[in-house]
Amino acid sequence: MHKQKDIQIKGMHCKSCTIVVAEELNKIPGVMNATVSLKTNKATIQFTDEPTDSQIEKAIDKAGYIVGYDKKTLFSRDKSTYIQIIFSLAILIILFFIFKFLGFSGINLGNLGNDKGMVALLVGITAGFSTCMALVGGLVIGLSARYAENHQSATVVQRFKPHLFFNLGRIVTFFVLGGVIGSFGSLSKLDGTITGLLTIIIGFVMLILGLQLTELFPKLSNKGITLPVGLAKLFGINQHKNREYSHKNALILGGLTFFLPCGFTQAMQLVTIGSGSFATGSIVMGLFAIGTAPGLLGVGGLMSVIKGKFSKTFFRFVGVLVVLLAIFNISNGVNLTGYKFDFSLPNNSNTNVIDKDAIILRTVFTPSVSSQDITPNTFNVQIGKSYVLEVDAKGDGEGCMSTIMIPGLYNSPILIKKGIVRLPFVVKKPGTYQITCAMGIVRGTVIATGAEGK
Fold first, then answer.
1. Could you tell me the end-to-end alpha-carbon distance of the chain, in angstroms, rounded to an integer?
2. Which run of H or of E encompasses 181?
3. What is the dihedral of CA 205, 207, 208, 214, to 10 degrees?
4. Hey, what CATH class is 359-449 in?
5. How many CA atoms lie within 13 A of 88 on its CB side?
6. Eight-class DSSP state of 189
7. CB < 8 Å & 24+ apart, contacts of 369-373
8. Three-state secondary-structure class, residue 398
């Protein structure tokens, strides 16, 4: 009969750590089996001949850890963690200004003429490699980095397979649902509040994933993100057996990204809605998803090959990036819901009918992938009166800034095409309302008071 012994271990932070420790403990003469738990920071060995404390300490030391009780603190006490995070922030700030200086922009979405499929494919390629893929791209980066960190013993092929299934699920779903919303047209029009709530939820998922990767909060490192039990049962996912990725999970996750409010995706959905055709909608959304695949697969490929000593520093850098993207998306999500931090309720009056006595608020739109694309961009209005925000578009909207809406006043995003775009609304509650794109990026402000606006 085998005897067993428990050993407390300090310094482990991911599942790959437990694999390395178990391998070293299994090499000790007399040890029949060693299992290591990240949750309890404990190794359990079964043996025929009991190893000495010296043998155990030597094996654990060889794995890069030490024997002892590792109390998880709220904040990391490792100075190198903070140094690497500051360094990562500096690099990302520099990259941000470089991209801004180079003036990366999107492709006009209003010019989808006869060859809608080809343009949709080009838009997808642009989206897959652009900063406007912050939501989907950031989610994939966070999940894939976390997976790679916890499975460093897996082969490159094993790590990359989930990303193939993720993109397959995404492409198939976009083809099918693209056709559906193309058929139903305006019945499937997107709502800003729902879109905003989805953005916030995914933003918080990304935030947790990013913080786990940074290791700033050790107590958070062992916390997993899983689907609610009811939803998991609906999709037939066994979370106890497969808490990370399975091919089925990857397919489902890829398909669900159809509902995530990436600015490019929403703009393409609006084009599809306007087509009124199943075939056109299917082709546009399907080819758009195919176009995004190279960028998303590139992320998957990068995460698949990172391992060894460099991995901890790299994943910490990725963690900082994902946290920043999460904050960006949560902020945009709040903008889209129309809710204010003063806890006043949003005004949901939204009509497509222009009142003949409506007051016209004129602004000029100049194509630009920035928040400074309409002039003027601040309007003072009076509650209870009818208004129309009349946008004189000098060109089609570009990239994630292809759409315009006023959450709380005009909740459905519309495409900006060259010519006049009108957004009618009535303000029933005083407050500040933001003019945004469908991704929640602020491009102007409507200030409602009880007095006549200027």
1. 88
2. helix 156-184
3. 150
4. mainly beta
5. 22
6. -
7. 369/104, 369/105, 369/106, 369/132, 369/398, 369/399, 369/400, 369/401, 370/401, 371/441, 371/442, 371/443, 372/443, 373/401, 373/443
8. strand
Please report where in the chains the tokens 């995460």 appear, as a residue: 303
- Contact (Cβ atoms closer than 8 angstroms) between residue 400 and residue 441: yes
Report yes or no: 163 and 145 within 8 Å, Cβ to Cβ.
no
* Separation of alpha carbons 136 and 325, rounded Å: 10
By the 10 Å C-beta count (0-12 exposed, 13-18 middle, 19+ buried), 379 is classed as buried
Alpha carbon separation from 390 to 212, 395, 424 (Å, rounded) = 46, 15, 8
The pLDDT of residue 84 is 86
Residue given tokens 């198939």 in the structure block: 172
Render pLDDT for 128-185 as a digit per residue (tens, 0 to 9).
665 445 556 556 665 666 666 566 566 667 767 777 888 899 899 999 998 888 887 6
- Spans of all domains in the chain: 3-67, 79-337, 359-449
CB 144 within 8 Å of CB 163: yes
Tokens coding 307? 């391992």
Residues 6+ apart with CB under 8 A from 238: 232
Q: Which residues face 7 on adjacent strands? A: 43
DSSP state of 108: B
Name, in order, each residue with C-beta under 8 angstroms of 94's C-beta and a sequence gap of 6 or more.
none
CA distance 46 to 34: 6
H-run or E-run covering 316 = helix 309-337
DSSP 269-307: HHHHHHH--HHHHHHHHHHHHHHHHHHHHHHHHHHHH--
**pLDDT number for residue 358:** 86
CATH number assigned to the domain covering 3-67: 3.30.70.100
**Single pTM value for the model:** 0.56
User: Of residues 306 and 204, which shows the higher confidence score?
Assistant: 204
Overall average pLDDT of the 29-42 stretch: 85
Question: pLDDT tens-digit profile of 376-418?
Answer: 999 999 998 999 999 999 888 876 677 888 988 888 888 888 8
